[in-house]
Amino acid sequence: MSSIEIPSYRELGNGRVADPKLARWLDRRDAARRHRKLYEPDWRMCQYYLAGKQWIGWSEQLHRVVAATNDPKEREREHYLANVLTQYVATILGKLYTDDFRPEITFRRDDKLSDEYATQCRNALRYAWDEEIPAREVLLDAILRLVTFGTAGVRCRYDSTVGPVLGELPVVDGKPELDPEKARAVMADNYENPSDRPRLQAVREGRICWEALSPDNILPPPGVDNERNFPWLIVERPVSITELKGLYPEAVEGLTEDDLETTSGGMHLREGGEEFGNTKLKGHVMVYTGYERPCPDYPEGEVFVFARDRKLDQRDELPYQVGGERKMGIAFFHYHRIPGRFWGLGPTQQGIGPQRNRNRSRSQYIELKDRLGLGRVYARTGTINILRESLGRLGEVIEIPHGHDFPQETTGTGPGPWIEADIHMSDEDMDRVMGLREVSLGQAPAGVSAYSAMALLKEEDDRRVGPILMMIRSGVADLVKFTMYSMREYWGPQKQIMVAGDEGLVAAHLFNATEIPMEFLVEVGEGPPIPRSAAAEAQKISDIFDRSIQSGQPLPIDWYVDSLEQGKPLPLPKREQSVQREKAELENMLMMRGQMPQIHMYDDDMVHMQVHRAMQSAIAILPDQALQQVNMMIEQHVQAHAMAGQQKQATSGLPDMQGARGQEAQLPPGVPGPAEGQGGDDPFAP
């Protein structure tokens, strides 16, 4: 009897999954969800604290955030809220987003790509960055998630469901052929064999998308602490059923909506019997995109798309190829990496402790003030109205029944300096865990007013976010590489792009994206941004002006006023010596061309002679007859300057320039005197 092979399947509710690949991805999804659930309480608490809901706790039974007022012991307590955490988070967000993340691209290929096409490629990237993606808004969204949760990501993908319809085009290797000539050639090659003809598909223009990913959208393999080592990854996001029908019309037949509470994990809070939070997401289903890294079973990787218990799509290659390697098209950002785990630690989570203690101390201060700071009146039952008529407006009145003794009160500990010190300690803890000083929060430190000192303090604060900025820039560089690949694959040979031109006009032209080279370099910036606020620039202007006075070379007052009006230091006016050096160098150029320049009475002869002697020194090492003629001309010009200098000194009554003879200390380094035997009235002659 032959054995019967039983197909592998996976139990899922009341049904069975007979597809082994789908079963494998479902197992991976469930394992990643169980592991991610360990960190979800911290993420939900961060969301609520930033939203101003801070008297909360986490319920392990309900696996959600609950209000502190649900506890009967807390209902009659004071719950004061002074949300300082948002200010710190906004400051860190501003530090990370003050940079222009758009990198520069340079090309390298054997045929020496022309400068004109390189400029067109940069304009095309600029158009995609500003108009089609748009990158600035997505990066701001991703950095906000990074500061809130400690981990964020950005996925680059091509959305083929938007834009005008280009027509029905043949699909080759799972991709529509956008080049009209190649499309006609593909159909012509298979014209005689209808069975071999590629299928036609209605293709829209589409657009390149960047999607900001929260931790709730990311399902990494448990136990792998770095994305470089991921064997696979799952990205989950809710998609409307209407959109799915346009993408996978056959696969979603009969698919119903999922019971989705929210797109980001759920923000629900019950206070006093009423529930607050996001409503259910109607008409959507959670779609999972699984990415398999290249391996022996999948040399080019795999993309597996599924929803609930059915497969929607499968491709036997990852969507991007950069540097000869297949990539998922996702860049991850981490605020503070923790060894041994993938999920980072964000500043919001670190600030919850000081914020909670601050709220608690302020609430206790109010309670002590109300309970101990106001007087009380104890009276027998029935005498309340008499007391009010005789004493007027009273504080708290406590009735004592007849037959009972009056209670004995103790003063206790009033709201003294100790509780204020506790509040200040919470603020100091917040400064330390956030890594921010007064200057980063817009406050001038005590005793510090100079721009250089404030810039140094701010630089120390920025140094802490320097590695994070470097990581963000590196991730953006990867995203630009994925974007350039998408442009080459999907834009086609006649993509119309529009960029800002000269004089405020818009320049529009057709761009052939199919000619984008496979090899190009992406250059990103380095280092933290320097202070650029109006106050910092004004302080810089004052410091430069004060330093010029201290050095004995004061700047004109007009420079100071004009710089303040412009909001930045203007270029320093040229000194007389710099002007004289430039004139002497121009004279050197004229003499190299055989023209003898004239001596003028306003020339600084000493400066001119130094510049001309330096030129003679450079010519002397070149055994060229023509240059020797130039050397002789320069020597004559130098002697003329020497005589002019003597005449000026005789007229002004200054010491004779002959006293400078033989003083080698006056010569600049590397500038020799005239050759021996030339003589003349030269202060630099030996």
Question: What is this structure, in a nutshell?
Answer:
By secondary structure, the protein is an alpha+beta fold. The chain is built from 16 helices and 25 strands. Strands 11-12-15-16-17 form a 5-stranded antiparallel β-sheet.
Walkthrough of the structure:
The protein has 686 residues and is α+β, with helices and mostly antiparallel strands. Helix content is 40%, strand content 18%. It is built from 16 helices and 25 strands. The protein has a five-stranded antiparallel β-sheet. The protein is flat and about 120 Å long. The model is unreliable at 1-9, 263-276, 390-394 and 656-686 (pLDDT under 50).
Strand portion: 15-25%
**C-alpha Rg, in Å?**
38 Å
pLDDT averaged residue by residue: 76
Contiguous uncertain segments of 5+ residues: 1-9, 263-276, 390-394, 656-686
Widest beta sheet: strand line-up: 11-12-15-16-17
What gross morphology would you assign?
A: flat
Q: Compute the separation of the termini in Å.
A: 116 Å
Topology at a glance:
Blueprint: E1 10-12, E2 15-17, H1 20-36, H2 40-50, E3 56-59, E4 64-67, H3 85-97, E5 104-107, H4 115-132, H5 135-149, E6 151-159, E7 165-172, E8 175-176, H6 180-189, E9 200-204, E10 207-213, E11 218-219, E12 232-240, H7 241-247, E13 268-271, E14 274-277, E15 284-292, E16 302-307, E17 310-315, E18 320-322, E19 325-327, E20 330-334, H8 347-372, E21 376-380, H9 384-391, E22 396-400, H10 417-434, H11 451-490, E23 495-500, E24 506-511, E25 520-523, H12 534-550, H13 557-566, H14 576-592, H15 605-620, H16 625-652
Parallel strand pairs: 21-22
Antiparallel strand pairs: 1-2, 3-4, 5-25, 6-10, 6-20, 7-8, 7-9, 11-12, 12-15, 13-14, 15-16, 16-17, 18-19, 23-24
Helix pairs in contact: 3-5, 8-10, 11-12, 14-15, 15-16
